[in-house]
Task: structure prediction
Amino acid sequence: MSNDLVRVTIDEREVHVPKGTGLVETALAAGVEIPVFCYEPRLGAPVGACRMCLVELEGIPKLQAACTLTATDGMVVRTARTSTKAAEGQNATLEFILVNHPLDCPVCDKGGECPLQDLTFRYGPGNTRMSFEKLTFEKPIPISPAISLDRERCILCYRCTRFSEDVSEDGQLVARNRGAMSVITTFEDEPYSGPFTGNVTELCPVGALLPTQYRFEGRPWEIQNVPTVCGMCSVGCNVNATVREGKVKRILSRNHPEIDEGWICDKGRFGFTHLRSADRIVDPIKRVRLRGFEPVSWDDALDEAERLLRAARGRVVVALSGSETVEQAYALAKLVRVGLGSHEAMLPEEVSHGLDAYGLPLSAIRDAQVVVVLGDVSVAERAPIVDLWIRAARRNGARILHELDEQAVHDADRSVLIWSGPGGRGGATVAAHAERLGLAGKPGCGAFYLPETPNGRGAADAWAAASDEEPAQAESVGLLIVSGDEAANDPNVRALAEKAESVIAVSMFHGLAVGWADLVLPGTSYLERDGTYVNLEGRLQRLRRSAVPPAPDELAWLSQLASRFGVELAPHAPSVFAELSERIYGGLAFGEVGERAPLRGYAGAPAHVEAPPLPEPEAARGGLRLVCYKPLFSGPAVERVEELQFQRPAAEVELARDDAKARGIANGQAVTVSHNGTSVQLRARIAKDLRAGVVRIAREHAGDLRGTVEVSA
Amino acid sequence: MAAEASPALVLGGAEEQPLRDLASYRAVGGYAQLERARAMTPQQVIEELIASNLRGRGGAFFPTGRKASFIPTPDKIAKPVYITVNADESEPGTFKDREIMLRVPHRLVEGCLIAAHAIQSRSVFIYIRGEYSTEYDVLQAAVGEAQGAGLLGDVSIVVHRGAGAYICGEETALLESLEGKRGQPRSKPPFPAIEGVYASPTLINNVETITTIPVVLQVGPAEFAKIGVPPDSTGTRVFCLSGNVVRPGAYERPHGITVRELIYDIGGGIADGRKLKAVMVGGSSFPVMTPDEIDTRLDATSLGQRGLFIGSGVVTAIDDRACIVQFALRVAQFYMHESCGKCTPCRVGTRWLVQLLRAVENGSATEHDLELLLDVCDRIIGKCLCVLGDSAAMPVASCVTKYRDEFHEHLAHGGCPFGADSSLDRLFAPVDQHHLAPVAHEAGV
Amino acid sequence: MSLADEIQQVAKRYPDSKSAILPALRLAQEQHGWLSRAAIEEVGEALDLTPAYCMSVASFYDMFNLEPAGRHTIEVCTNVCCGLVNAQAVLESFERELGVAPGETTADGEITLRAVECLGACSTPTAVAVDHRYRQSVTPDQAASIVEELRGR
Result:
């Protein structure tokens, strides 16, 4: 699109827009709405299928689909507002759309927030002239456990199939048959699966594709949408939590054009039902000698916590999850570090300041000419939306490389490096590459590190901000505080808990924490918290409490506990943020973090990073290097969501094409993966994005396999 | 224009026997025009086509030379340019391309190669409808022979078989299908000359058009432009005469012959001594012609004055045994079956038309339904993504307006007044084979 | 040559292998008799397309069978040109000979009968495609011998 302005007349109103602006957008600029169903610019080139946007174009006798046109100088357009012909076209389309639509709005979950309903109300006929049998289909059909399809309501706008083919590129949701008999379907009885399927429920302009979780759960006048940020991974997609009577009923995207472009993954969309998991902990639970574990009052719990803390003073270790809000991590740090003089934290993953110099939004990936993805773990497993940005880049003509081709990076004006997998040293590795390749300070260039935790960096920074004291290695662990479910689920943390004299765990779930900690305090979810998160771009974003937690949140009891140690700690996120912001966010006010937060970057980050030396390349020892990864659809929350169970990773080993060929292994074949006498039976899958010499297995299927493995048929 | 004085040009040399092999085609001067063309500059070839005013024989009647001139030359674009020959002949009543491919396959190949030279393309795809098995074999053999004889030079010709979808005769649907997709038309612009197959400039022409190119060079553009009805309808057409005539067949005649001449002089008149009731002219996609219009000349201008179209050169005589409502119903059923399902008015409207016509036919319709029928036609025409919707609505609307009395008789009679006497009585339509669409649950029309 | 190899051979004719999907589906159908789940998956694997995509494309075209079909097919044109000259009688004659309705396959799985749209042989009605080869000017009384001929194959 060029910046030359052109003059367009829409319904006798003149408007100047950049040449090439879509006509629908041009009309909007002139204050004229052109109604659409199939048009959705995020799905690629317009298709002109629904015919709702018919307009009259001066000089052309036939009505034109406005969505397929772009503004040119001197264009004169008449919409249904001023052209009888266009109005007739629009009426015709709406009548045709309603011919087969069941008009079951009173029992349809889309009712009240349905584009078809709205446009029918505004432009549609008051009655129907269709007196014959409508097309009928079996309904609703579960196209997956998470999404149901009502083919009678479907108006065949093809938004969903275009998403599947052209955005997520999974090629699973398709149209079958031709003409009037066309229907949306998957292959045979296979469920629509993959990281992004739920987006079709938001794209659907009618009640055809609906999330099963929301079926009969609420009406638009009974709900509120709370703007917050997803806490399921490090991307930090902007979302709306649909709330009814204090409970989250649904998660919707909330387009942040630099982060998510309005797409969210299924974990973020459907994962919220872990909030109402049957084993949710609502009261503190204390280990009672000879009687096991018993719920206790908060007073008792805080007394017990105080006792344990005093007993271990100076020998407290905190295991962080990386899913704490910045405020929570700071509060915990202040209690333990200032109140007890214990400075040792076990971080969930390594963090680095290496990439602080690059203030690059994720959307820069789409505009890059070369995208190098290193680290050997599928991007979608770590930071799903980044995978969509990479696909968008490829569709724009970018080269996507899985080996560092330095010449390609040098030759391109805009290159982005992405590290997804082990060996990233919190971003230091990819930062070293980027620095060496001269990407620092070059417009549109930079690097991203994809962490495993949603707010690992924010939590680490908050921990550091609470005190300047250096941790002194204690000879024994007096008390281990396990902060959150990911930490509670971490085998390394559990191993340390075995050695600790006592353990306090903060967790949401019985199944996870009860049985091995001396005191379990109820945890909350990101949907139940106020506060801030820092995403993988380094963007500080605001979480808003969407649901009322079943127990006081972490800040509430941390503040009470802190006061017992003479530490002043506010119980509310805004006050905690005000305190820590002075130290690490340049005094930014809580209220200014923003609903669609800008990328502020790290204050005081040097323009050039100190390039840490790269690790020695591993010596080739024959065999295949095993990369074990934490799958997107795994973890304590996912395990508690019924609608996501079918998305759990299959028992597979991924191989590069050449490695499979060399071993005579076909796609889908049963194979044995072995290492040092241990072996695991898995199904082979040939992965196009995998380098030769590397194999990939989801952690939960890798058993005891480590290091170098061999795969045999 | 005397009907019998007819120079066979496109089918020239094949009047008695088909010219299937290279030797027999060479014997009538075959491939001489290719040689001549290759001695000319590409621009000169295009200029000759423009001078001849040859127009597309597939139905749209667009000037062939101008279309070729829209293709960017290699100095203007870095992409390859393609030629796609539309051999997806599926318009009801049309069989001329089949005759051409069976009788003069090498002339088609020669036309492809001259066109390739004209737009400097090295890649030709001939998209042939999937049902044409013998035609595919014959054409493939001709391409093989031409290749063996070194005639192709650096041009490749791939004969690509369709798989049964009328809509793939629409140029952009054809491109989609050729790219390996569902054959759903694209929104234009971009036009194929700029972004056709594989997002590259693409020249799309009908078989008969391409096969006429060597003829244009052979007789010379100026002479060619004198044949038929200059300036707009030059040259000959391979007319497809069928229906209730004594001698149906493919007859190559200059533009301007009248429908009466074709049916009575060439076709031997209406069979079994019946009376002519209607004529399907151009194909089933257009308004029907009444008997009092049959002196109309078959050229674009004369037909256009009556709101008719030359289409793909179809003339199908319908005698007085046929119920016109049944005819309209069967035509509507065809378009319902062939609607691609992409745009709303066509997908929904064609089915609604079938329902309304069936109601008229079985006597459950009212006067109000006739008006609704016309209104539905009106709401389809000019609103669709491609011309298929119009193709369903135009003939149906013309039946209602031109044979309104017969529609009224149905209403008054409480059903078809012809009963079992109609030649189209109970004619089964493929769209009723519903179990072929297993996901549809009781999709009764 | 395996089906996958055959498909990959055909794919070489095109700048983009996706273009080979119609020939590939045709080959798979010839080999499997119809486009079964396995047949579709084979095509998808050979062309690096999802089975859903292959099914979606196949279902658009009339010549692909997404349900089991007979070893032989008889396809009677019932569009208007043939219809004006007795196509319905020809179709009914085949229905009687085979004991099936249009769109159905004989109980022994031998012959599928179909009504089809215009075959482009309008000057020689009624046009009937028998195993995809045209018979022209077919009359109702020829149905029996055509069926007999197929049963003998």
About this structure: Residues 581 and 587 of chain A are 5 Å apart (CA to CA).
